[in-house]
Specification:
318 residues; mainly alpha; iron ion binding
Length: 318
């Protein structure tokens, strides 16, 4: 039998434990308040439209605000502000990219293109898409060589190479035996150029007609590729320093693509917002080149500006 003192202590403890629970069980919430329309008048808007001055914002106005934000955050223009720079004539290209960067990229794309043009089955099964992108890049680079102010390899054949390659690029919108055979001829032409024997036919228009050289879609695909390469190569200061040459070349190429996208004859080249975004991408890419040339390997802000302008452009003009 338990001692009386223990029983009294246990009884007292059980009473103390039950007191808060009883209080909680008896607790009641305050009733829900009610308000009349007269009491809330002037505090809340009657409808969403009343909350905005002038007109309610639309998706188009939001996009324009995004364009303005990108323009304000981007780097300073790399070249002058004259009409010649806006049109990117012969002198303009030389300010954006070096001859060695053009030559190295032509060789790189040519090697990739060699692998794409392997068999008719692979080409017709989707290889024609890669072929179109490669040929579009090459046609663009040869057009730049044709208009370049300084000495660049293949300049005497650039116009002919531009026209041959651009024509096949346009035809590579679909796969077929005929297009594959034409693509094989361009593979042989590129081999002749790189090897130094030159093209068999050199007849071409002397001036660049950008509407006949390249489409916007493969250029945007290429810009995305260059942007990804920049981000991967510049993860930190050490990576940037180790990959400085590749970063410089890819930034120069991205600066060039930004200017090409605004050339007369290409889609939306007369759209002010589109031109602003393209120029901001080009300027931000050139800021990367300037940083590398100054041995500044902390380029996160510049790469971020490139990404911001690219993303804003793809949102609206893909």
């Amino acid at each position: 039998m338990l001692p009386p003192t223990f029983l009294r202590s246990a009884l007292l403890a059980s009473c103390l434990i039950s007191l808060p629970l009883t209080g909680i069980g008896q607790e009641q919430r305050a009733p829900k308040p009610t308000f009349s329309d007269r009491e809330t008048q002037g505090v809340f808007f009657g409808s969403l439209d009343e909350a905005f001055r002038d007109s309610r914002p639309t998706l188009a106005t939001i996009r324009k605000a995004s364009v303005a934000a990108v323009a304000a955050a981007s780097a300073e223009p790399a070249s002058g502000d004259g009409e010649g720079d806006q049109a990117t004539g012969a002198a303009g290209w030389a300010k954006l990219i070096t001859p060695i960067s053009i030559e190295d990229e032509i060789k790189r794309v040519k090697l990739h293109y060699d692998g794409v043009i392997s068999t008719p089955g692979a080409f017709n099964g989707g290889g024609y898409v890669e072929a179109r992108t490669d040929l579009s890049i090459l046609a663009t680079l040869f057009a730049i060589i044709n208009d370049y102010s300084g000495d660049v390899r293949w300049k005497d054949q650039a116009a002919a190479a531009r026209d041959l390659i651009a024509r096949t690029a346009f035809n590579c919108k679909a796969g077929s035996a005929q297009v594959y055979n034409e693509a094989k001829l361009r593979k042989a032409d590129l081999q002749d150029l790189v090897a130094g024997s030159g093209l068999a036919s050199r007849d071409a228009e002397p001036e660049n007609d950008w509407s006949m050289i390249v489409d916007r879609v493969p250029l945007m695909t290429y810009a995305e590729l260059l942007q990804d390469k920049l981000k991967q190569a510049s993860r930190d200061k050490k990576s940037t320093q180790e990959n400085a040459d590749a970063i410089r070349r890819n930034a120069q190429l991205l600066a060039v693509i930004g200017k090409v996208l605004t050339q007369e004859g290409l889609d939306d080249s007369e759209d002010d917002d589109y031109v602003t975004l393209s120029n901001q991408m080009s300027n931000a890419a050139t800021a990367i080149v300037n940083a590398i040339d100054s041995n500044n390997f902390e380029i996160g802000a510049q790469v971020g500006a490139v990404t911001q302008s690219c993303d804003a452009c793809h949102e609206q003009y893909r």
